[in-house]
């Protein structure tokens, strides 16, 4: 049975192909269009290029697909090509399917928290799902409760479009403190990174601006307006840029604190309802890796799984898996190995050579006998390296196949990459990737974090060893490198450890500011030439700038 899943909402579109229960491939539209979150594509959206990508990768056409599934909150333009054969499902159900059917759990509780999802009408008013709880087991997913927020756009409140949304609160604070991305959307990842620089002075002020209910979250339009007025007033009273920056950091700290508190309470309610030891998380709020780790620490759940594509792009994956298990009436049996996030196409040596040959500027290239030893030595010597390998990752985090790598031992490496390569704010932290067997030597967690969605503490005696990946509060957004998932990344880490004694590398996404992560060899070459990276590694080929030898 082949299922094509289409994902997204009004942004973050994607496609995924599942065959006989196995994910064959998955890709986000932004990687192909080169437009961040694929927002504002206009007529290009109906091309649904991601679907062509996954079908081509499998060597099939749409005629070989048994069913096409999409969530009913997606921009319908994205499904126009397949409108006569689409099976529709709920947005939060697609999120839930994406995380449960990629988990190692036979049975689990599932929690979905985002901005807003599928709508229902009640008493002439429109409500959108904001929090949803499910149980998952061999027979699939069952909804057990949640919250729908009132849609208020019809009241001409374009800045307050829906109530009772944790995602709305976090995104709105992000926008008010200056983090605004494509389409006017907030950039909550920046808020999460800024939060540790803040003080707790606004934490109390938030306490009357929402209420956590039994399995839900309530925030009225009036409370939303008061929240906006509070942030705007405090920013307006700030005397000068330095004080204004501190106010921004303090509000980031406050909203992060409260979202952690809210999610822990919601998870506690869900555990009390189900008694399960295992929890699956999805929805855009589940990309808050700091909060995810707090849920693991502070609730009775013993294991937590977060799908790597937890945001709206992951609904394509969820739709395809739902089509196989629910519509195809197939029992759920968890795999005996972690879910692989490496679901994009793999590019041939010929395509790599062509990208180098057709580069808009001269490049040198060499295939060393031992690429890992050579690259490890370059990184240890201070080089910033673009690392392009195998199949691209699913989700917003680079996990070692489309990564920029650096030496975590040099404190100045963080500022260097932020300023000269990524061209982004100086406060933004970078993630460490560590060999699985050495994780507990450096981090205060024995929980594997394959998808960079947990933030533990760096052990105190190791913070001076890996300062470039230790955040200001002593934490790190950890990635665990597994031989079963990414042997080439582990080979490089092993070579770096043999050379330096440190089994950790700095890992950030292979892209410049405001562009998607690179997908093709040609994308990688362009990004390499447009930034101050020192080396580019495409498979086994090491590329440097300058006239060919």
Automatic annotation (TrEMBL):
Name the UniProt record assigns to this protein: Carbamoyltransferase
InterPro entries: ATPase_NBD, Carbam_trans_C, Carbam_trans_C_sf, Carbtransf_dom, NodU/CmcH_Carbamoyltrnsfr
Gene3D superfamilies cross-referenced by the UniProt entry: 3.30.420.40, Carbamoyltransferase, C-terminal domain
Domain (Carbamoyltransferase C-terminal): residue spans on this chain: 377-545
CDD domains on file: ASKHA_NBD_TobZ_N
Organism: Nocardiopsis coralli
Family: Belongs to the NodU/CmcH family.
Lineage: superkingdom: Bacteria
Residue ranges constituting the Carbamoyltransferase domain according to the UniProt record: 82-321
């Amino acid at each position: 049975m082949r299922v094509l899943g289409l994902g997204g909402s009004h942004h973050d579109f994607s496609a995924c192909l599942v065959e006989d229960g196995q994910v064959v491939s998955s890709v986000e539209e932004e990687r192909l269009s080169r437009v961040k979150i694929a927002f504002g594509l206009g007529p290009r959206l109906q091309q649904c290029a991601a679907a062509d990508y996954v079908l081509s990768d499998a060597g099939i056409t749409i005629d070989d697909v048994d069913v096409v599934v999409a969530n009913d909150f997606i921009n319908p333009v994205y499904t126009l090509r397949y409108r006569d054969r689409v099976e529709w499902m709920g947005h939060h159900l697609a999120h839930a399917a994406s995380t449960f059917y990629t988990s190692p759990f036979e049975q689990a509780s599932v929690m979905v928290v985002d901005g807003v999802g599928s709508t229902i009408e009640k008493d002439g008013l429109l409500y959108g799902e904001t929090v949803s709880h499910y149980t998952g087991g061999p027979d699939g997913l069952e909804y057990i409760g949640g919250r729908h927020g009132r849609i208020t756009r019809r009241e001409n409140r374009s800045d307050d479009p829906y109530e009772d949304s944790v995602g709305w609160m976090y995104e709105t604070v992000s926008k008010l403190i200056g983090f605004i991305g494509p389409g006017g959307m907030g950039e909550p990842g920046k808020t999460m990174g800024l939060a540790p620089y803040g003080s707790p002075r606004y934490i109390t002020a938030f306490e009357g601006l929402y209420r956590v209910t039994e399995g839900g979250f309530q925030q009225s339009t009036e409370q939303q307006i008061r929240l906006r007025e509070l942030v705007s007033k405090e920013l307006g009273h700030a005397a000068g840029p330095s004080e204004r920056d501190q106010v921004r950091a303090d509000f980031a700290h406050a909203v992060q604190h409260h979202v952690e508190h809210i999610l822990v309470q919601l998870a506690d309610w869900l555990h009390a309802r189900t008694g399960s030891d295992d929890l699956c998380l999805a929805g855009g709020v589940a990309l808050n890796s700091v909060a995810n780790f707090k849920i693991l620490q502070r609730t009775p759940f013993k294991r937590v799984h977060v799908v790597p594509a937890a945001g709206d792009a992951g609904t394509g994956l969820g739709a395809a898996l739902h089509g196989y298990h629910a519509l195809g009436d197939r029992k759920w049996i968890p795999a005996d190995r972690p879910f692989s996030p490496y679901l994009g196409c793999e590019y041939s040596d010929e395509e790599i050579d062509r990208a180098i040959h057709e580069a808009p500027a001269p490049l040198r290239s060499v295939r060393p006998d031992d690429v890992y030893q050579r690259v490890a030595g370059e990184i240890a010597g201070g080089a910033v390296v673009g690392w392009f390998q195998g199949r691209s990752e699913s989700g917003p985090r680079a996990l070692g196949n489309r990564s920029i790598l650096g030496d975590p031992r040099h404190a100045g490496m963080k500022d260097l990459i932020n300023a000269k390569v990524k061209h982004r704010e100086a406060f933004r932290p970078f993630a460490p990737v560590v060999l699985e067997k050495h994780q507990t030597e450096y981090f205060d967690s024995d929980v594997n974090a394959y998808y960079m969605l947990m933030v533990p503490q760096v052990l105190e005696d190791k913070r001076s060893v890996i300062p470039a990946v230790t955040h200001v509060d002593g934490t790190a957004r950890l990635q665990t490198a597994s031989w079963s998932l990414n042997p080439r990344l582990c080979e490089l880490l092993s070579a770096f450890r043999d050379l330096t004694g440190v089994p950790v590398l700095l890992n950030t996404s292979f892209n410049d500011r405001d562009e998607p992560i690179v997908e093709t060899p040609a994308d990688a070459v362009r990004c390499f030439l447009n930034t101050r990276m020192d080396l580019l590694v495409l498979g086994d080929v090491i590329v440097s700038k300058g006239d060919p030898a």
